[in-house]
Amino acid sequence: MGDAKDMNKFGRQPNPDFYEARKKSPPPVETNAEIFYYKKQIDSRTPMVIVMHDGEQIEGTIEWYDLDALKINRKDAPNLLLMKQHIKYMYKAAEKKQESSE
Q1: pLDDT tens across 52-96, in order?
Q2: Which helix (H) or strand (E) segment is 94 a member of?
Q3: How far is 63 from 70, CA to CA, in rounded Å?
Q4: CATH number for the domain whose boundaries are 32-101
Q5: Is the pTM of this model over 0.85?
Q6: Which of 86, 44, 83 lies closest to 63 in space, CA to CA?
Q7: How far apart are CA 41 and CA 34, in angstroms?
Q8: Of 92, 85, 98, nearest to 50 (Cα)?
């Protein structure tokens, strides 16, 4: 048996393997949540409102996306290629209509 200072409160020596197994690994850097969200909106052709950093609101459906950009199809206006760095946030257009009718 080891010294008293090496004992835990149960009178046993701690097992270093036990403590190593309990350490949590850091969360993943990429969760793929963004990819899942875009794919879902593209597949269902959900009308979206994209709010830019300057306050401009763009309505349309997402046709495709890549690492840096979204292509937005609009009904009565030209299609747009929006750089993600200029997008503040986006939401479903149906949510905007629900808020205004309440």
Answers
A1: 999 999 999 999 999 999 999 999 999 999 999 999 999 999 887
A2: helix 93-101
A3: 8
A4: 2.30.30.100
A5: no
A6: 44
A7: 11
A8: 92
